[in-house]
Design brief:
heterodimer, A: mainly beta, six-stranded mixed sheet, 0% helix, 50% strand, globular, B: mainly beta, four-stranded antiparallel sheet
Chain lengths: 111, 113
């Protein structure tokens, strides 16, 4: 079946550092890809999405490009802030079974 | 504002007891989902429903039951048959169609007394 593999965490960076969280997937069709963010004790919030190859999703300074040739959807941000500390999930759509999630990457940003 | 409301935020279960977690959405979404999240892990699908009065098992349905009597409501019952129920439970919904993101509630944390 479809699956998502994320870079293992935890990841700890200093404020203003460059962030990359790797995500690769396997899928039989052409899924949509998503990044979700989860703050402590809360549900998941959609961070960005891409629905077809070469699409770039972006939001709040985060970006990810749907790379069909490498089956990847890496999350990047040029300059992280303390407020970006959270758990990040990569996911693909697998209708009608909902989303298939990676295991999550915990990100901590130190001032 | 439209959204998904889960209640309660915290729930405690005694041994041998069934408990029900509430999920209500006012987004007019057809599809609703229940996920379980364990510490340091991703989300696993328990049940999903695409239409009223119909629902399907996900990857870890054993020990859980659901109903979908109304479009906006999708309650989850954790039965006494679920031997390890301590987890964070998330409800989600979306429009029908694989390319739409899911919207999530704020979750219910279930613990055993």
């Amino acid at each position: 079946g479809d699956s998502v593999t994320q870079m293992e965490g935890p990841v700890t960076l200093s404020e203003e550092a460059f962030l990359t969280i790797n995500c690769t997937y396997t899928a039989t069709g052409y899924p949509s890809l998503f990044w979700y963010v989860q703050y402590p004790g809360e549900g998941l919030q959609l961070l960005l999405k891409a629905t077809k190859a070469d699409d770039k999703g972006s939001n709040k300074g985060f970006e990810a490009t749907y790379r069909k040739e490498t089956t990847s959807f890496h999350l990047e941000k040029g300059s992280v802030q303390v407020s970006d500390s959270a758990v990040y999930f990569c996911a693909l759509s697998d209708a009608p079974l909902g989303l298939v999630f990676g295991q999550g990457t915990r990100l901590t940003i130190n001032p | 504002d439209g959204g998904i409301t889960q209640s309660p935020k915290y729930l405690f279960r005694k041994e041998g007891q069934n408990v029900t977690l509430s999920c209500e959405q006012n987004l007019n979404h057809d599809a609703m989902y229940w996920y379980r999240q364990d510490p340091g892990q991703g989300l696993r699908l328990i049940y999903y429903s695409q239409i009223v009065n119909d629902f399907q098992k996900g990857d870890i349905a054993e020990g859980y039951s659901v109903s979908r009597e109304k479009k906006e409501s999708f309650p989850l019952t954790v039965t006494s048959a679920q031997k390890n129920p301590t987890a964070f439970y998330l409800c989600a919904s979306t429009v029908i169609g694989s390319r739409q993101p899911q919207h999530f509630g704020d979750g219910t944390r279930l613990s055993i007394l």
